[in-house]
Q: What sequence folds into this?
């Protein structure tokens, strides 16, 4: 299994109690949707469809070709098993679970920089992208994505677009009323809505592919309480509008703060900023010594900063970055 | 996907409002463990290990070789993918998801009656059993199970024992302190604890197999709120003792009631009674017309009755069975 940002392992290594960490390692909205009370039946009954979740998702995402899954991760792992071994392009740098899942299922995986994609798409059966990309924050023009989808689907290929962070960006979703063949869009409840513990995401795709995916995932994959809470989150337009507005502001604030600390972001979105720097590892360690956990990437040498969720958290980050500058050799 | 007991489809067919059904179709404890309040962080953070769930499971099940999974169903689907195509024996009649999962993964599946197993085990690489069996309630002697495990594991084979309903039976679990190679035991939080909506189960097996299974299932498979509630359920010995006592009584009461209605159970356990009768389909329909949903099996012609959860539910079942007898040609 791949390593992910994990507060507890860090806590053990640095000898700082769990409750004292400021965890900026994930890119999850630190001010999450507040879960409504869960009716006891949601715990005790087998989850059934037609409880309103599918309808809420259709309304929020704008398509009826949408399937709830047990987190985007479940879809990332299941999709590669729906194709015979083929040639798959994944972004580099990019969220490593995509490449890992396709490789584990026996596919030939090519890691591509963003500017290599256009030239390589003709040699691929499946192209996986993130919009915006994680951790770089890079956006693709929808015109390019549509063009690549046409090119791939003309030969039975797929364009898989992981839109996990899209609500925190300026990008327009590729989801459309009736999903065409060969286009698969992944959405997450963990990032914008901050419901990472609910293990719920959605896949938008052509009805035939969704039927295959549903069969592969099996019955009852999303927990009953999660179905209840996620449905409420998808229907709460007032919360969504306020959260989007706040993420724009907070994203800009974080970017400015990093610029002020001489760590100008190379890219980012409302939920994280990405800083490419040769000093990433030492900065990661110094921040961890202050109880601030970021996400370190060795290749390319870089750091991803999530948002602090409280005034105190922002002040701690400011103070630590000030100190970091002071400590700079 | 296989058909399962589903209240809503039945409700649509019989024109009875959802809230008016007495659902006896599942074998889930109708008086479930009452979930404690879930801390908001369980919804908002990615689920992490070391939150006490693994320790609670080790204590309840009596082994540290235990892995939480997103419902027994997740393990049923993942285990067949951990072996190259081989010869698999599954019980007939038995819970159909086992055969379905092994077949879907390309294995050669033989359906075996209980009395064929001893003679066939030498021709198998994997033997899947339920203890007690669902829906027949049949129990295997642990001596036989241990003997079959030895026979299978000597050639690299597996004995998979699904103990989903074991707390509602007199059987002793096959789980032991250090799990040996070739023995895989599945446990469910959905039946005895009545937490079917939590989508949480456990797999006890040799550490090396658990590591492979964990890798196949990927990160964060059990939702954070489910981890919290399941941990509490596993630790609540007073609830467990009271529930076991009640299930013994209620199981006997249901069996007696069926005998009184001239439908003597062929087998069962504390959570369900199984009635083999040529008249199963017509009885299923007549009970459904009264708003009582049972589980009908065509082959062999039989019905499974779960427990009513309330005094009113018991009275409704008594009345409907009385009427059923009156209506008998």
A:
């Amino acid at each position: 299994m791949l390593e992910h940002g994990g507060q507890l392992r860090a806590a053990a290594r640095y000898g700082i109690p769990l409750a004292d960490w400021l965890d900026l390692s994930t890119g999850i909205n630190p001010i999450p949707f507040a879960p409504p009370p869960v009716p006891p039946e949601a715990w005790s009954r087998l989850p059934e469809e037609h409880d309103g979740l599918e309808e809420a998702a259709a309304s929020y995402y704008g398509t009826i070709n949408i399937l709830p899954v047990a987190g985007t991760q479940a879809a990332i792992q299941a999709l590669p098993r729906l194709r015979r071994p083929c040639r798959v392009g994944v972004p580099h740098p990019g969220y490593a679970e995509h490449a890992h899942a396709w490789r584990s299922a026996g596919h030939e995986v090519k890691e591509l920089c963003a500017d290599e994609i256009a030239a390589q798409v003709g040699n691929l059966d499946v192209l996986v992208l993130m919009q915006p990309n994680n951790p770089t924050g890079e956006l693709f023009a929808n015109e390019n994505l549509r063009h690549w989808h046409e090119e791939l689907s003309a030969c039975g290929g797929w364009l898989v677009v992981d839109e996990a962070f899209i609500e925190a960006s300026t990008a327009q979703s590729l989801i459309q009323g009736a999903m065409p063949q060969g286009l698969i869009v992944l959405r997450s409840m963990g990032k914008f809505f901050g419901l990472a513990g609910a293990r719920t995401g959605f896949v938008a795709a052509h009805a035939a592919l969704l039927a295959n995916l549903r069969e592969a995932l099996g019955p009852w994959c999303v927990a009953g309480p999660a179905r209840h809470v996620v449905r409420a989150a998808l229907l709460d337009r007032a919360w969504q509008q306020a959260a989007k507005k706040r993420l724009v502001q907070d994203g800009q604030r974080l970017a400015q703060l990093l610029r002020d600390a001489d760590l100008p972001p190379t890219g980012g979105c409302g939920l994280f900023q990405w800083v490419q720097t040769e000093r990433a590892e030492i900065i990661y360690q110094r921040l961890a010594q202050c109880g601030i956990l970021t996400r370190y990437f060795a290749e390319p040498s870089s750091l991803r900063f999530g948002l602090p969720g409280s005034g105190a958290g922002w002040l701690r980050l400011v103070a630590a970055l000030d100190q970091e500058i002071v400590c700079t050799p």
Observations:
- Chain A touches chain B through 49 residues (CB under 8 Å).
- Chain A is about 40% helix and 15% strand.
